[in-house]
Design goal:
17 helices; 8-stranded parallel β-barrel; flavoprotein; tRNA-binding; Four Helix Bundle (Hemerythrin (Met), subunit A); 2 domains; tRNA processing; EC 1.3.1.91; alpha/beta; tRNA-dihydrouridine(20/20a) synthase; 9 strands
Length: 331
């Protein structure tokens, strides 16, 4: 997708490990045409020393699409950024926000906020290696460092290396003692830090992330900053995205119903199951359990698509049967 035809980053779905894989992203794209999608975090080591095709492969329908990288070696990140461009990604994003201890052992993620010059060096190396956007996703602070000046200083240092887009999770990352889940819930949200960052650095593109669940909340944030990144709500309640294109991009194309989304997904499922890559229906079905959230019959949909005995050796017909069950029909 050329820069001229790419939509703005008004709305995006956050990179979520083990969740935003290519199956989820294809499904999400059936609901919203313009929302930016991010890969789950992929380490530089996995790409450079593992199965690059497995980690980088995507469907052209997924654009606009960003690859999120985890790493702290400028040379390795540069090589991966170049590969991201060669594979056709629209953006490469550096993870400076993940607080998990496993990630810290690899010397990347949120702990890198303590080394803003290293992050700047990484960004410069990546920008020198590729022609696509290089962005950074980070927290507002780490551990007990809660001063606004800390996040502003971090952003200023990285911006000096040429980064112009920052995705800010408006919580501190607690590096010891909290699980990743607790790190998404316990540190208080300080949205006003992100707003202030945009006010004081208007030349930068600032996106906000953290605890955002509704269209009303999204509207409030977009009055203050450039874009909103939604995480788990877009996964557990994916049909929330059905309103995004008209509301935030001015695209009034007919919104597919939930049933139509299922219908549109069937050819993809058939292709994936017959491609010889080892894909099974369960690999796709787990990402679509929330499609009928809030609709009578949603429990039947979830039950059928998470039943191991039904999923075993199943094909697209199970999706049709589950859809029929939502409406009390028999197939």
């Amino acid at each position: 997708m050329s820069q001229a035809t790419r939509p703005a980053r008004r709305l995006s779905v956050a990179p979520m490990l083990d969740w935003t894989d290519r199956h989820y992203r294809y499904f999400a794209r059936l609901i919203s045409r313009h929302t930016w999608l991010y890969s789950e975090m992929v380490t530089t080591g996995a790409i450079l020393h593992g199965d690059a095709d497995r980690f980088l492969r995507f469907d052209e329908a997924e654009h606009p699409l960003a690859l999120q990288l985890g790493g702290s070696e400028p040379e390795d990140l540069a090589r991966c950024a170049k590969l991201a461009e060669q594979w056709g990604y629209d953006e490469v994003n550096l993870n400076v926000g993940c607080p998990s201890e496993r990630v810290q052992k690899g010397a990347f993620g949120a702990c890198l906020m303590a080394e803003p010059q290293l992050v700047a060096d990484c960004v410069k190396a990546m920008r020198d290696a590729c022609g696509i956007d290089v962005t950074v996703k980070h927290r507002i602070g780490i551990d007990s460092v809660e001063d606004y000046d800390f996040v502003q200083g971090f952003v200023d240092t990285v911006a000096a290396a040429g980064c112009t887009t920052f995705i800010v999770h408006a919580r501190n990352a607690i590096l010891k003692g909290l699980s990743p889940k607790e790190n998404r819930e316990i540190p208080p949200l300080r949205y006003h830090y992100v707003y202030r960052l945009k006010q004081e650095r208007p030349e930068l593109e600032i996106l906000i992330n953290g605890g955002i669940k509704t269209l009303a909340e999204t509207d409030e944030h977009l009055d203050e900053i450039d874009g909103v990144m939604i995480g788990r709500e877009a996964y557990h309640n994916p049909y929330l995205m059905a309103d995004f294109d008209a509301r935030y991009y001015g695209d009034e194309h007919p919104v597919p119903s939930r049933d139509e989304v299922v219908e549109a997904l069937l050819p993809y499922v058939e292709r994936e199951l017959s491609a010889g890559r080892g894909t099974q229906l369960r690999h796709i079905a787990r990402h679509i359990l929330g499609l009928y959230q809030g609709v009578p019959g949603a429990r039947q949909w979830r039950r059928m698509l998470s039943d191991a005995s039904l999923l075993k050796d199943a094909g697209p017909e199970l999706l049709l049967a589950a859809r029929a069950a939502v409406h009390g029909e028999k197939r």
